[in-house]
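Work Package 3 (structural annotation) set out to generate three-dimensional models for the target panel prioritized at the project kickoff. During this period the team completed the workflow that converts sequence records into discrete structure tokens, so that structures can be stored uniformly alongside our sequence database. As a representative example, we reproduce one entry of 461 residues exactly as it appears in the project archive.
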Amino acid sequence: MERVLGVETEYGLSARTDSGRLSAPEAAETLFRPVVAEHRSANVFLVNGGRLYLDVGAHPEYATPECRTARQLLVAERAGDEIVARLAARASELSAQAGQQVRFRLFKNNVDSFGNSYGCHENYLVSRDLDLEVAADLLATFLVTRQVICGTGRLHRGEFTISQRADHLHDQLSALTTRARPLLNTRDEPLADASRFRRLHVLAGDSNLLEPSAWLKVGSLAAVLELLDTPTGPDPRLARLRLADPGSALKLVARDPGIRLELADGRHLSAIELQRAHLELATVHAEPALVALWSRVLDALADGVPERVAAEVEWVAKRRLLDGYRSRHRLAVDDPRLAQLDLAFHELGGLFTLLEARGAVTRITDPADVEAALRQPPTGTRAEARSAFLTAAAGQGRDHTVDWQTCTVHDLPGPDGRPADRSVVLGDPLATVSDELEELVAAMSAQPRVRATGGFRPPAQ
């Protein structure tokens, strides 16, 4: 089936003033002051189709608009990083005008210094007929071993693991997202027509700054989904790749990408071999350039020379950086300076940006496309329709709210002349236009604004 893809990224945040460090709630409140000043809310949909909001735990979060391809998603995700970084700059300016100097640091990583984990959640449109328990069972091996091609890497107490999330995931399938985190979340929240669609909500991935890793993460899973979500049911060959114990394997692979794992049928294959098996099955469903990258990464790992793909695989790039620094300064593997360097790697506008500018890591997106994506939605999904509604409503000063699938105007006149809500549901994530929505936009232009008594109507909750 045709799909839409999206990524939700929770960012680490810290802020300091001349008198000391702000608490997490204070830092988040200060960061979102420009958003609240403009939108009267810290939870907003933007004209580019994405959603910017303050998540539980005082984490800034950005959800990309719906995208049709992994390449399109790369641009949208990169735009999200830029939106959050520019928000920090605006918040610093606003604080300076109020007489307080605030310096923000934003991190695109998954674990803080206290061991708390925050996520990068992937979303894939799948059919209502897909059985999530079956999907979780057949996808577990792929998700457990996917970290070898796109993990972010983490140095903690002298031990390097290739994934930041691996030690914080416990189950294959669960409705929880903060305790006993699973590889896949079961919450039935399609954000679309529930009779036709499901949303596959994946919690297993790391947040990537390195674009080839981000492309591999999403593009490979999108290709493997074509083996699962079919009218005739899952490809039976996937069942032969099931692991005996995915939970244990996840942590083993994080420490040794070449480790051999026990399968449910008693065979033993390495994580690299299991990824190769998935690549061979899914090749026909992936873009040739992605297949070439996927294969090149696996070849380098199989040959024991991951440094060949250090410009394309994030955990390899980070380990090369850490090893080089430790060697030059003759540091012990658990030296705190290495932990500081590990964290600095993830700072928006920081060390990674320098590495990219110097060509030490590969960039795929065009900066002009990213700049355009700050204001324009991706083509080919309902993000276009939502963006058109937001543009019209803002241009006419209408009292309105939106969520992923609903656009509502609150100040149109009802039959009794009093303000009445009028909503349009966009149930198909692939529909770029809606006759009903166009009628609503026309009504906004043609009909007067009607205010509730007192001149203010609170936004819908």
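The chain is about 40% helix and 20% strand.
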